[in-house]
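Researcher: Next sequence.
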Amino acid sequence: MARGGKSSRRGRPKRPPVRKAAPKPSGGGKTSDGGLSPVDIIIGMMRGDMPFDDARFKAAVAAAPYVHARRGTAEAEAESSVRHEDALKELE
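Model: Next structure:
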């Protein structure tokens, strides 16, 4: 039989503490070192403002998801005086 007191290693392990998200940079299209952001490079090459460089373009496309977040979905809130059940009865 086991002897001794309460074991600190019993049961389900505790979850690690939640890490806070890093603050988002507000560079307005510029990187912290003064260079262009990946989207600025892609748009500049598409418009013809800068010469097309295949390696630089591929690097900008690969880096864009890590620098620029996707736009979130917006939830629509609508006020309605008609209940769902009443609207279904009207369709019948």
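Model: The helical segments are 38-47, 54-67, 84-91. Residues 29-68 form one domain.
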